[in-house]
């Protein structure tokens, strides 16, 4: 049995400005501006005072799920422009010391298990990668850019053709939280 409508709403804090044009949502805050196009989704997005309302009438299962997904995306955009996101990664090695260097939009991981050529990981969007000794911080306002950049760094140090229980070298995510250290 289908429900008549699926509705979710997202509160907008005082220091955040949200614009909805058709199904393109723009969020401005103290940390930056994020824009996202939801025109592929069969939902209506409306701005009513300090609340963004996402709804669809007579939804099927997928459309009802999209309402919650889009509400979560908008909520993450608001969290990003107010606080930002930080992923902390730990550099782990047993014999060959690994060094991490940032070059343009890539991260070079040098001397990984004694390899001569550096392993490369792509930096997505406006994420900032900050190497600090045995730690690497990935910061930004867009949670998807930050998390994908951290995943790219972690994936670049994947060990192949060896027992992963013995060879534990790599760069691993150990903490995720809101807020950015300047």
In words, what does this structure look like?
The chain has 182 residues and is of the alpha+beta class. It has two domains: 78 residues, Outer Surface Protein A, domain 3, CATH 3.90.930; 94 residues, Alpha-Beta Complex (Outer Surface Protein A, domain 3). The chain is built from two helices and 13 strands. A hairpin with an 8-residue loop joins β9 and β10. 27% of the residues are buried. The model has no long low-confidence stretch (mean pLDDT 94).
Number of helices: 2
Give me the CATH superfamily of the largest domain.
Answer: Ribosomal protein L6
Termini Cα gap:
52 Å
Tell me the CATH topology of the largest domain: Outer Surface Protein A, domain 3
Strand order of the largest sheet: 11-12-7-13
- Poorly predicted segments: none
Q: Categorize the overall geometry.
A: elongated
- Approximately how much helix is present in the residues? 10-25%
Strand residue percentage: 35-45%
User: Please, what is the average pLDDT?
Assistant: 94
Q: Tally the beta strands.
A: 13
Which CATH class of the largest domain applies here? Alpha Beta
H/E element order: EEEEEEHEEEEEEHE
Report the biggest beta sheet as strand number plus sense, adding barrel if it closes: 4 strands, antiparallel
Number of domains: 2
Architecture of the largest domain, according to CATH? Answer: Alpha-Beta Complex
**For the CA atoms, what is the radius of gyration?**
20 Å
What would you call the structural class? alpha+beta
């Amino acid at each position: 049995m289908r429900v008549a409508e699926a509705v979710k709403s997202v509160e907008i804090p005082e220091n955040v400005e949200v614009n909805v044009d058709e199904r393109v949502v723009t969020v401005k805050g103290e940390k930056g501006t994020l824009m996202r196009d939801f025109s592929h989704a069969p939902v209506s997005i409306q701005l009513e005072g300090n609340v963004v309302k996402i709804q669809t009438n007579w939804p099927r299962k997928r459309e009802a799920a999209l309402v919650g997904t889009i509400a979560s995306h908008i909520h993450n955009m608001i969290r990003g422009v107010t606080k930002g996101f930080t992923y902390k990664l730990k550099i782990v090695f047993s014999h060959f010391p690994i060094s991490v260097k940032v070059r343009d939009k890539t991260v070079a991981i040098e001397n990984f298990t004694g390899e001569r050529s550096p392993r490369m990981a792509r930096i997505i969007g406006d994420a900032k990668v900050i190497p600090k000794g045995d730690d690497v911080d990935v910061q930004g306002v867009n949670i998807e850019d930050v998390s994908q950049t951290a995943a790219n760094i972690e994936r670049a140090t994947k060990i192949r053709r060896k027992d992963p229980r013995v060879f534990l070298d790599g760069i691993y995510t150990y903490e995720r939280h809101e807020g950015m250290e300047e």
